[in-house]
Amino acid sequence: METKTLFTMKKLFITMCLLSMISSLSYAQNLRYGFTGGVNLSKPTGDVEPDGVRAGLLLGVKGELEIPAIKGLYTEFGLQLSTKAHKSGLVIGFENEYLQSTTDINYLNIPIHIGYKIKCSESISFLVNAGPYFGVGMWGKQKFYRDEKKYHSASDIFSGEYGYKRFDYGCGFNIGVEYAKHFQLTLGADWGLKDICKKSSYKYRNRSFTISLGYIL
Question: Where does the Outer membrane protein beta-barrel domain start and stop, copy by copy (predicted)?
Answer without folding.
Answer: 28-196
